[in-house]
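User: I've been trying to design a sequence by hand for this structure and keep getting stuck. Would you show me what you'd pick, starting by listing the structure so we're on the same page?

Assistant: Good idea, let's start from the same input. This is the structure you sent:
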């Protein structure tokens, strides 16, 4: 055995060279990995071998190039050089993939002559999701296997492809029986014996394309890519593969990668990449999560059904309890109906739908929850209703069952207090529709045990959700900040802006929808009912805009009744003269002279409102860190991902502009400005940016 480096080693077995990459936790392609690979490749060239296998130690092949290196000048050797060495190697090289082969990891595999994979492996080029394009030949080698149209779709979506699908697409030559290293090596040896010659993808022609299919794929990719510059670049690069010599196209791809990785957007997306992972950690001793084998859900309304679909999709059996047989059957029928519709649309295979239906046990008896390891309540949002339920569940559930509430606003400590198992109580705040929305606030109540938190976080991961740990407080992280943002939208309208001016400013900024159109979609009557309940306890000194109340009093409950902040004709949104009149009356009642707001004024005021509330959320300890707020707003509230979240975005603004926007927001709400804490909140992010600037120029 020839040992080159701790992170990459070479051994020779039965005439095959085995190059193992060992860089925990995910074998990210760092500078030492690239150097180690190059040294091993030089070494194998000196031996008479039947072939070479490239394999990853631990849980992955190579999860991508090391993202932490992208903000600074890249140290040699660079990945294209390593791939060139594989292509120039005198022996055929086979990538033996398990776990993830993503980004630079998949490009490494595409540089090999053969690829075999474990059945549970994933491959793909997720670079566009990081604001960049593949930088080591992904846009040039992939189309040679899939054709242009498919390559455009795959590169521009960044989708992770399962090994069986990759095999069907021709990206993988053979599937191994398992991810056991011996099974992988056996399959790789067999593949090399069956194809003992070099088969460099760069030498293959790009299959002749149907121009219409390419045009359709391009249009779809650009639409889904929301006009981001790196997606446009990715489309152009894939097309180059059929238009110019490989080396020229590879150089163009490399130049685009080098330029994009240093743009603001790429830094913002890298900030989110690491913030997303940090958000799932909580301060405290690490505790082993309990195993969740069966999940109970109480309440089969919209939310309960969505949670149920999400849990079934993760392969876990569910007992869904409704209050009586009729409600039980209606909930079960709605869930199976949704599964059938997914099959009809081709989003789900009939076999998977069958398995999910079989895993659903509808019931109208809480006693059927006795064998569940986790029970989530999703009943009516009312403290008494939920407390009564928790009292009963406390007597029925086995010891150690994790008891979760899906409440959006209620005090979880008050819920836990009626049980004898407060340590086992947490919040699991799903967003609607719960099977589609990625965010899951995992709420730590005062007495929640570390083990309960760990179990809830592991469960979130099983569901494929982005968890963010929050403390128990009104509205937790997301709803509290969003409420401040929405309130501020109403201030702007009362002060002179029109609903469409506010919404257009928000969508121009990058929000998926404006706050008023969102209100219309969710229904204005729900918030109206809540405001009426809270009227007696409202702070009389706080600014209160009664325009939404006036809209509701006029029957304008939102999209579902054809009118809210807007009119809806055939499902299309239109500015409403009636609404303009209601707004004018409300202003007149308060003797407000309307003033003009530019789109920039509106954007800055809305961002100021978000920042001020975010600072309070952090100061109160409801969120643990600034990045958690960015992750929450991006995954749950449509904040543009490519801006890195509101706090990251704000940390790039000059401090005096932040001061102006927070002052304006504070003045409008009649509250004290929270500028001191906003400055403190942004300080670590500003420091991160300064570090970036230094590293960019290689001076760190
Ligand atoms: C690229 O390759 C561009 C090329 O074209 C350029 C060619 C020149 N770098 O997610 P986890 C860390 S772009 C650095 O919790 P899981 C991660 O931060 C890259 N670090 O595990 C975490 O650290 P910590 C394209 C990375 O099991 C730890 O590993 N690749 C990288 O839930 C565990 O991560 C991607 O976009 C990285 N590339 O999921 C894939 N990847 O413990 C990104 C992970 O300190 N990675 N870390 O918080 C993933 O999708 C997931 O990590 C993976 C495992 C699915 C692999």
């Amino acid at each position: 055995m020839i040992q080159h480096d701790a992170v990459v080693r070479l051994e020779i077995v039965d005439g095959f060279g085995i190059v193992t990459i060992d860089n925990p936790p995910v074998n990210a392609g760092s500078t030492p990995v690239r150097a180690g690979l190059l040294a091993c490749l030089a070494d194998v060239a000196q031996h008479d071998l039947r072939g070479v296998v490239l394999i990853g130690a631990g849980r992955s092949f190579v999860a991508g190039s090391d993202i932490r290196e992208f903000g600074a000048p890249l140290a040699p050797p660079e990945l294209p050089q390593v791939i060139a060495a594989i292509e120039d190697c005198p022996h055929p090289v086979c990538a033996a993939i398990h776990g993830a082969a993503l980004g630079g990891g998949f490009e490494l595999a595409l540089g090999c002559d053969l690829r075999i994979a474990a059945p549970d492996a994933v491959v793909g080029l997720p670079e566009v999701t990081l604001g960049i394009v593949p930088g080591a030949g992904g846009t040039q080698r992939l189309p040679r296997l899939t054709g242009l149209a498919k390559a455009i779709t795959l590169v521009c979506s960044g989708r992770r492809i399962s090994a069986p699908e990759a095999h069907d697409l021709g990206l993988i030559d053979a599937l191994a029986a398992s991810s056991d290293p011996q099974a992988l090596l056996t399959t790789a040896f067999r593949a090399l014996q069956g194809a003992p010659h070099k088969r460099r993808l760069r030498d293959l022609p790009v299959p002749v394309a149907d121009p219409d299919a390419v045009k359709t794929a391009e249009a779809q990719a650009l639409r889904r890519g929301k006009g981001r510059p790196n997606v446009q670049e990715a489309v152009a690069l894939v097309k180059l593969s059929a238009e110019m010599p490989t080396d020229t196209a590879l150089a163009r791809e490399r130049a685009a990668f080098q330029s994009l990785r240093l743009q603001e957007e790429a830094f913002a997306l890298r900030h989110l990449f690491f913030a997303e992972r940090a958000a799932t950690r909580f301060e405290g001793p690490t505790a082993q999560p309990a195993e969740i084998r069966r999940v109970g859900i109480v309440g089969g309304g919209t939310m309960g059904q969505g949670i149920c679909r999400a849990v079934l999709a993760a392969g876990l059996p569910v007992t869904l309890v409704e209050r009586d047989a009729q409600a039980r059957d209606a909930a079960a029928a709605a869930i199976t109906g949704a599964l059938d519709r997914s099959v009809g649309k081709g989003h789900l295979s009939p076999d998977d739908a069958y398995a999910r239906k079989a895993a659903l046990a509808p019931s109208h008896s809480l006693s059927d929850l006795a064998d569940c390891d986790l029970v989530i309540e999703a009943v009516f949002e009312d403290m008494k209703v939920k407390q009564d339920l928790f009292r009963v569940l406390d007597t029925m559930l086995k010891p150690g069952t994790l008891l979760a509430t899906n409440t959006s606003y209620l005090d979880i400590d008050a819920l836990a207090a009626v049980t004898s198992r407060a340590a086992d109580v947490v919040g699991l705040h799903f967003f609607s529709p719960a099977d589609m929305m990625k965010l899951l606030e995992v709420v730590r109540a005062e007495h929640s045990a570390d083990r309960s938190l760990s179990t809830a976080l592991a469960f979130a991961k099983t569901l494929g959700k982005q968890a963010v740990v929050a403390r128990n407080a009104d509205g937790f992280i997301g709803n509290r900040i969003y409420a401040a943002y929405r309130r501020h939208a109403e201030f702007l309208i009362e002060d002179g802006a029109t609903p469409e001016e506010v919404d257009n400013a928000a969508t121009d900024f990058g929000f998926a929808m404006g706050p008023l159109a969102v209100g219309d979609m969710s229904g204005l009557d729900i918030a109206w009912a809540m405001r009426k309940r809270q009227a007696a306890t409202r702070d009389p000194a706080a600014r209160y805009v009664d325009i939404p109340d006036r809209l509701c009093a006029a029957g304008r409950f939102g999209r579902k009744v054809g009118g809210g902040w807007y009119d809806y004709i055939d499902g299309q949104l239109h500015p409403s003269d009636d609404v303009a009149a209601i707004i004018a009356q409300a202003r007149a009642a308060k003797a407000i002279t309307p003033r003009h707001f530019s789109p920039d004024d509106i954007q800055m005021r809305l961002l100021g409102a978000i920042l001020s509330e975010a600072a309070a959320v952090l100061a109160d300890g409801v969120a643990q860190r600034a990045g958690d707020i960015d992750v929450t707003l991006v995954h749950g509230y449509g904040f543009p991902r490519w801006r890195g979240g509101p706090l990251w975005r704000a940390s790039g603004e000059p401090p005096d502009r932040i001061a102006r926007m927070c002052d304006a927001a504070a003045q409008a709400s009649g509250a004290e400005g929270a500028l001191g804490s906003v400055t403190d909140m942004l300080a670590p992010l500003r420091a991160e940016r300064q570090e970036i600037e230094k590293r960019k120029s290689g001076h760190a």
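That's my pick for every position. To get oriented when you compare it with your attempt: Residues 25-26, 28, 60, 63-68, 79, 100, 102-104, 107, 126-127, 130, 134-136, 138, 274, 277 surround (S)-3-Hydroxyhexanoyl-CoA (CB under 6 Å). DSSP finds 28 helices and 19 strands in the chain.
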